[in-house]
Amino acid sequence: MSLYLYRISLTFSLSLLSGIALSATLDVVPVERSKGLQTEDVFTQPKSFITNSQRFTREDFRRLPVANAYEMLDYATGAFTQTQGRKSPYFASIRAGSNLGIILDGAYLPPPAASKVLMQLPVNAIESMTVVRDASALNLGPLTSIIGPMTNSRTEGFIVIQTRSAFDQPQTELHSKIGSYQQFEVDASHNHAFNEAVAGRVLLAHQQKEGPSDYFNDYQRQVGLWKLQGYHQKLDWQLNFWHADAEQALQRGLPSSGVSDAKWRYKPMQMRMLNGQAGYYWDEDSTSAVRFAYSQSDATLQQFSHSQVNAYKEERTEENFANVDLSHALNRSLFSGKNLLRFGYNFMHYDNPTGMLYYPGFARKEHIHALYLQNEFRTQRASLDFGLRADQRFIDKGYEQVGKQRRLIEDVRLDPLLTAALGASFQVTPQSLLTARSLYTEQQPLSVYSANDGQLAKEQRLRTELGWQHHWWQAAHGHFTTTLTGFDEQLDNGAYIAAQIDDPQDANSKINVYANADWRNYGMELELKGRYAKLHYELGFSQVKPGKTPNGVVNVPETLVRARLHYLTNQWQYSLGAQNMGEYLSANQAGTGTAGGFTRYDAALAYLFKTEGMQHKLLFSAKNLGDQPYETVYGFPSEGLTYGVDYYVQF
Predict the structure, then answer these.
(1) Are 643 and 619 in contact (CB under 8 A)?
(2) What's the pLDDT score for residue 18?
(3) Residue-level pLDDT at 581
């Protein structure tokens, strides 16, 4: 460990302060309404991180047929979504990774809750979504999932979502949508300024859809988001409450999925989340910040059978998650540049008394203590940033497999997950920027995940990344920029599923047997973005090459292409989106098969007009114009062509 830390030096730091984002302009005092810790500057980054993040604004969500945050990932470089999984309607992956950390208004969401929240969060509530294609965001969250094995769950990146500020205009906005398969949505948003320093916003929504008759993926939801936000002389704070009542069917698979006879429905499904953030400016150089979150999910999973009419089973699930983060930042002039030092403490606690994802009926409790330190020194032409993070994970109670047996476990303390990284940037010319980063992590998997009580070796991960961004031209009538990123990741003693054996206690279940192996993933990403007059365009190409990957490691598509094209006038907006996924070997309960190998096109046409005191927008959109039943995961096809009409009015 010490040798690697010496080689990497300390940690590459990203200036994302734990979702609290202390902003590169900390010397602004008093706090300006547009420069508060929790408003437009929720997400910031050091200069060396520019080449591997992508930001989508509220207008991006409105220009193409996007129903939720997951569907926006269809246009993100290097990312892809799966619309089905074990008791979960959505999964997201990036590069060669199996885990994405989700940050909503500064609150880290655990994996089981994340899909339930993001699929129900109204698009109209989102101000921005930033996709971070690197796990070096050490102050956002742990680099392994708080729930699940310490195997095959490495965090590869983060999705940082910011909801609309309570101070944003317009004051009132209404939105409605009708679409194919009896889709109907309506939401209303209203903000109110109590005085110059305090404002509130409320958003209420109803969403429903039947879906194709043989897909069994209908839903119905009632959602509310309440926000209270304030700025004072040196204090900046925000408080959010989110609530959803819903029912959701999980998509039926083909016979090749192995679960084509299963009918799974969450009814009822309730989600509640309370989170808050606050920052105090001691002076122009020193800021303390706190963020906290509490989320709760109560749901009943109803299990039916398509072939056996009388078959029925219920499984209740309850999840509770708490997160607290305390941090401090010092922003000082140093030599001929600026130095930003950040350090903090993070605590997470997960409680699942019903044990839904860990064998129903057996409670699961975990908690994590984490410390992190980050520093960035920046001059006009160059920057250097580093950091360290240590996550100490405890399993307070669980029910795990040990070889061919299962047993209750209590008070299991894992070895700390240690992370170090280093980043740098150099402005070669005013138009050309070079970046470099290196990340190292090591973690000790639990012995209970290997065969015959054997102890898995300590997993070590070393990752390097180089980036180049160049602005080829910029003028009043347009601009053109390219960003190229290459990465290489080496895993020594990587833990993976080596085999499955029959469960002696359950004839319908299998037990995973884990082992260690060495392998690497490497690849590149190329992004082109520009504008010429009224034409806006964006293209993203990513390629991942697994090298010496052992059987049992989850496969991902090696090539992904994403494109967006917009022609915008004051009255009309024409948009076209495209997604191409290379063919790859995908696995499910029934075995392995081919997924991907498709190109999908989306289109939208918007008409904007004004009446006295109001602005209107009509959006006509169609998704999957070729009506292809493509599969991003083997055995679960898409719906085919869908279309709809959205109406927005602001006053």
Answers:
(1) no
(2) 31
(3) 94
- Cα–Cα distance, 445 to 173 (Å, whole number): 50
Mean pLDDT value across residues 109-125 = 84
The C-alpha angle 254, 257, 262, rounded to 5 degrees, equals 75
The amino acid present at 273, given as its one-letter code, is M
Q: Is the Cβ–Cβ distance between 161 and 224 less than 8 Å?
A: no
Average pLDDT, the chain: 83
- 178 and 184 Cβ atoms separated by less than 8 Å: yes
Tell me what percent of the chain is helix, strand and coil, each rounded to the nearest 5.
Answer: 10, 60, 30
Across the range 44-50, mean pLDDT stands at 80
End-to-end CA distance of the chain: 59
Tokens 């989600």 sit on residue: 271
CA distance 437 to 157: 14
Residue 258 DSSP label: S
| 310-353 residue pLDDT tens | 889 888 888 899 999 998 988 889 888 999 888 999 999 999 89
List Cβ neighbours of 244 (8 Å cut-off, separation of 6 or more).
Answer: 116, 117, 120, 221, 222, 223, 224, 269, 270, 271, 272
Q: Are 81 and 74 in contact (CB under 8 A)?
A: yes
How many Å apart are CA 418 and CA 389, to the nearest integer?
A: 6
* β-strands 614-623, 584-588 pairing: unpaired
**pLDDT score for 10:** 29
Polymer length of the chain: 651
Q: pLDDT, tens digit, for every residue of 470-520?
A: 999 999 999 999 999 999 989 898 877 777 777 666 666 666 677 788 888
Q: DSSP state, 52?
A: G
Confidence band, pLDDT 50/70/90 cuts, at residue 417: confident
Q: How far apart are CA 43 and CA 164, in angstroms?
A: 13
555 has pLDDT over 50: yes
Q: Could you tell me the two tokens for 106?
A: 């500064």
Tell me, what's the pLDDT at 256?
87
Residues 422, 10 contacting (CB under 8 angstroms): yes
Q: What CA–CA distance (Å, rounded) separates 182 from 266?
A: 20
Instruction: Please tell me the distance from the alpha carbon of residue 520 to that of residue 545, in angstroms, as a whole number.
Output: 9
For 435-470, the pLDDT digits (tens) are 999 999 888 776 555 655 567 788 888 989 999 999
Pairing of strands 79-82, 559-568: unpaired
What is d(CA 188, CA 190) in angstroms, rounded to the nearest whole number? 7
User: Which tokens go with 127?
Assistant: 């101000």
The β-bridge partners of 550 are none
Q: Is the peptide bond before 110 cis (omega within 30 degrees of 0)?
A: no
216: left (phi over 0), alpha (psi -120 to 50) or beta: left
d(CA 601, CA 622): 9
Residues 492, 1: Cα–Cα separation, whole Å: 13
- Residue 6: per-residue pLDDT: 30
* pTM of the full structure: 0.87
Rounded CA-CA distance 153/598 in Å is: 27
